[in-house]
Amino acid sequence: EVQLVESGGGLVKPGGSLRLSCVVSGFTFNTYTVNWVRQAPGKGLEWVSSISSSGYYIFYADSVQGRFTVSRDNAKNSLYLEMNSLRVEDTAVYYCARETLGVVRTFDIWGQGTMVTVSS
Amino acid sequence: VMTQSPATLSVSPGDRATLSCRASQSVSNNLAWYQQKPGQTPRLLIYGASTRATGIPARFSGSGSGTEFTLTVSSLQSEDFAVYYCQQYNDWPLTFGQGTRLEIK
How close does chain B come to A16, measured CA to CA in Å? Predict the structure, then answer.
């Protein structure tokens, strides 16, 4: 069974940092681009970042550029999101999502998400 | 920018629902639709503007190209009432519409 399991969310003060992890199973992780997508409470979806299978190509939304860093460890089947200088508006459920095979930049399998709350 | 309309659509079970998505500039046919039910993660329905993803029932259909797109759900079933998002993947940054809530009339 294909699975993506996020962890690392929690409550953090504005200006603080947090590191999210996503461990995958059930597919060959090192052949897929993977992504972070977030959803603020009661709001819509916002793409955050993408990292290619090798980690060579990396893209960020303007809203997180310079504050968030995505990385992956293919040996550990893991994806990470290092979040610094957190703002109240970063409060959201953060999902890791696999790129659809054969349809680049779409998302076919999603994790259940981890909640990040930025509040003083 | 991706703009979806209407924000909420009330339709009776068995009827047809038509959801719209407009792009501020052409995205060719690089447009996907997702369904999200309460408490669940999004599910990919359509990609390439009109191709159903694996396992998606034939009552879901997509059309359009360039800047105007439509998702049609024919003969609505109870499980189809959810929020629907369009997403362009023509260029970075990847962007979603704000969603259309499809509710039971």
Answer: 25
Residue A72: pLDDT band by 50, 70, 90 thresholds? very high
Interface of B with A in 12-41 (CB under 8 A): 30, 32, 34, 36, 41
User: CB-side exposure of A31: number of CA atoms within 13 Å?
Assistant: 7
Tokens 């597919």: give the residue.
A27
Secondary structure of A32-77 in HEC code, one letter for each residue? CCEEEEEECCCCCEEEEEEECCCCCCEEECCCCCCCEEEEEEHHHC
Q: Summarize pLDDT for B3-46 with one digit per residue, the tens.
A: 999 999 999 999 999 999 999 999 999 999 999 999 999 999 99
**Would you report the helix, strand and coil content of chain B in percent, each value rounded to 5?**
5, 50, 45
B71–chain A nearest CA distance, Å:
17
Q: How far apart are CA A28 and CA A110, in angstroms?
A: 15
Using an 8 Å Cβ cutoff, are A67 and A73 in contact?
no
Q: Which residues of B touch A111 (CB under 8 A)?
A: 41
Q: By C-alpha distance, which of B59, B54, B56 is closest to B17? A: B59
Q: What is the pLDDT of residues A32-59, one digit of tens each?
A: 999 999 999 999 999 999 999 999 999 9
Task: Identify which of A65, A17, A19, A16 has the alpha carbon closest to the alpha carbon of residue A8.
Answer: A19
